[in-house]
Amino acid sequence: MSKKDKGMYRKAISRSLADRIGDSTDGAAVADAVLDIWHMMRAQLSPAIGVRGANTLFAYTLHLTSKEYPWLAISKNTGSDSTELPELKTRLANSEPDAALAASHALLAIFVKLLSNMIGDQSVELLLGPVWASPQSSSEQLNVF
Fold it and tell me: How far apart are CA 26 and CA 140, in angstroms?
């Protein structure tokens, strides 16, 4: 992934989180935003890599992210969102908003980077473009990068 592509992903992730968080200033809003984005990513990726593949990649991403944000570490990482998502939501919601936002951004960026390494930048753009679009504006869905 080139630096330019990395910057575009980071910008899209930041914009998507900001659109979903809105004016809220608490960790719960960040938690809701990142889980909303995750559910959308999984829905977009499931036809290509399957639900299990998406969940496994997310669990690995969470593991990697917890190296920088140890408070995100989840002991029973099963590759299923039945355990990880509720615990992730609680940890983000109970953290300082700036820390929750930084960790969420890192989590999504690492996920996209891993996915891009697996399937390529063009496939990531095609599959995840709709996720990064503003929830209010679906007309820009394919042109966020």
Answer: 28
**pLDDT digit string, tens, across residues 59-109:** 999 999 999 999 999 876 555 556 688 999 999 999 999 999 999 999 999
The set of long-range contacts for 129-132, using a CB threshold of 8 Å and a minimum separation of 24, is 130/40, 130/44, 131/16, 131/37, 131/40, 131/41, 131/44, 132/12, 132/13, 132/15, 132/16
Max CA pair span of the chain: 41
Q: For the chain, what are the domain ranges?
A: 3-132
44-51 average pLDDT score: 93
